[in-house]
Design goal:
heterodimer, A: about 290 residues, 4-stranded antiparallel beta sheet, B: about 250 residues
Chain lengths: ~290, ~250
């Protein structure tokens, strides 16, 4: 069995006043997270998929203790998480969360100041904080922005600055909420290279995304959320190949899988293993013809 | 917006990295404006501040003029009552008239304030706020005060962006077609800003909590070095202002 870094059991969370609003408006569910269970293996690349309002962002905030669940358990390295000051410090050191909107995180006047904030909160000496800050900025290729004021950055640069702020805390698990939103095509491609480098270092990476193409090509495993629960968790080529299930989850089949499905149906292509990338799909088609 | 232009020049001027030197010059001139005789002391402080900002740091004269305009207007309004005296005589009753003694007080106060304002604006337009906060932190200024400065500076631009988006969206739907509608749209924009401010504050609190926020906003600044030669030049310039003032006093009394 794979070494589990985070395990979530029967988690529930409701926003304050949500049930009253639900009663008044009708049709909406009261709980943002409703009996959710999930396991995240150490070093894994996990993509959380789900429609808008499925509970992805709420789950991410529960996974690093920013929100406290109404009920249920979160195990970190096999131990139940605790919400004491000391417990939260240890938890947030191990599990870093990058928010979807970088303005939720960036509060300081310059990029350098903002990135130094997390390591300082870990009680590290100044020299170590400077070292980590420089390293995180260089790793993300934004060392030239260190002295730039945050409000003068583009949305893509702000996103990278927010990620650097978490990176500098050197978490074992890095959780990112819609990391490619706001990045252009080149920025997204560079970002995926950066995620690969993190995986090579052994960091567990969890992404919450809408983009099934990204999830399919990048993740070791995907978990699909429907109405605050993990409806399915497993290998991308299995979970994302079920058209009926994807329709229920308001998701679409990845382009590569859809192409492969059509090729096997219309051209009678005979392969057991679906391709993961566009290149693999074209090679299969070329070989078959 | 003026504040954005000033902030931009604080980062773009030739002296933006000379944080310590700018601080010594700006604060030094501020003290000189308060301590030296208003004439010619404060006038000299004004001249040195403006020359340093425009010829030295390369801030355009129109930017400095715009920066000085608002405080000078407040200063002028404040000086007006000093020129007047209220006199009561049993026959004529209460009369408001020009006071020659008030002119001396008003000009002394005005000159001193002008010098002090120019020194502060020199500092503001040549040194980024982030660097000023960094220096204050090194000088062990109270932490809560620096936290407030930091958040105010960041949120000012964040809220300005929100307000600009709201106003643009309203204008796109003819929300500023005439004065009556403009007032209504303006009030709705402010109400919206209030709600978005609360939402943004809550989101930022969550964002900070995720990075171990424990009640203080400790940050590190990039290490700043100073040039002893430049500091000596600044001290010399300030010394010359003092010497010139003393010489003027001696000559004018002598």
């Amino acid at each position: 069995m794979a070494d589990t870094v985070l395990e979530v059991k029967d988690l529930r969370y409701s926003y304050s006043g949500a049930s009253e609003l639900c009663q008044r408006c009708g049709g909406h569910r009261a709980a943002a997270i409703d009996g959710l269970s999930l396991t995240i293996a150490r070093g894994q690349r996990l993509a959380l998929l789900g429609a808008n309002g499925a509970g992805k962002s709420t789950l991410l905030q529960l996974l690093n203790g920013t929100l406290r669940p109404t009920s249920g358990t979160i195990l970190l390295d096999g131990l139940a998480t605790d919400y004491t000051r000391k417990g939260l410090l240890r938890w947030r050191q191990k599990v870093g969360l990058v928010f979807q909107n970088p303005d939720d995180q960036l509060f300081a006047a310059t990029v350098f100041q903002d990135v130094s904030y997390g390591p300082l909160n870990l009680g590290l000496p100044e020299a170590e904080v400077r070292c980590r800050t420089d390293e995180a900025l260089s790793f993300l290729g934004i060392a030239n922005l260190a002295d730039s004021p945050v409000h003068m950055l583009s949305s893509g640069q702000r996103k990278l600055a927010a990620i650097a702020g978490i990176m500098a805390m050197r978490p074992e698990v890095l959780i990112l909420d819609e990391p490619t939103a706001g990045l252009d095509a080149l920025g997204s491609a560079q970002f995926l290279v950066f995620l690969d480098q993190l995986s090579v270092r052994g960091t567990t990476v969890v992404l919450a995304v809408h983009d099934t193409d990204l999830a399919f090509s990048w993740a070791d495993e995907v978990a699909v959320l429907i109405h605050g629960r993990v409806a399915r968790q497993g290998a991308p080529q299995e979970v994302l190949f079920d058209q009926e299930f994807l329709t229920a989850a308001h998701l679409r089949m990845p382009f590569v899988l859809d192409g492969w499905r059509l090729a096997t149906r219309l051209c009678g292509m005979q392969t057991d293993r679906p391709p993961r990338t566009m290149e693999q799909l074209f090679r299969l088609l070329q070989f078959d013809s | 917006m003026l504040i954005q232009a000033l902030d931009l020049w604080a980062h773009a001027n030739r002296w933006h990295n000379r944080v310590i030197e700018n601080g010594v010059l700006g604060v030094g001139l501020l003290f000189l404006a308060m301590l030296l005789p208003p004439f010619p002391g404060a006038l000299l402080v004004f001249a040195v501040s403006m020359t340093a900002a425009t010829a030295g740091a390369g801030v355009p004269i129109p930017v400095m003029a715009r920066a000085m305009a608002a405080p000078c207007l407040f200063l002028a309004v404040g000086m007006l009552p000093m020129l007047l005296a209220v006199r009561y005589s049993p026959g004529a009753g209460v009369a408001i008239e020009y006071s020659p003694a008030g002119l001396a007080t008003a000009s002394a106060t005005g000159l001193r304030a002008l010098g002090a304002i120019s020194a502060l604006i020199f500092l503001g337009v040549t040194t980024p706020v982030s660097s000023q906060i960094g220096i204050l932190r090194r000088m062990h200024a109270p932490g809560f005060l620096l936290d407030i400065m930091l958040l105010t500076y960041r949120l000012l631009f964040l809220f300005d962006a929100i307000l600009e988006r709201v106003i643009t969206a309203q204008a796109g739907r003819l929300g500023y077609r005439n004065l009556r509608i403009s007032f209504r749209s303006g009030s709705l924009a402010i109400a919206s800003l209030f709600i978005q401010t609360l939402t943004r504050a809550q989101a930022m609190e969550r964002g900070l909590a995720a990075r171990g926020y424990d009640g203080s906003l400790q940050v590190l600044d990039i290490s700043r070095k100073f040039n002893a030669y430049r500091l000596a030049t600044i001290a010399l310039a300030q010394g010359l202002v003092v010497v010139f003032c003393l010489a003027w006093k001696v000559v004018s009394h002598g």
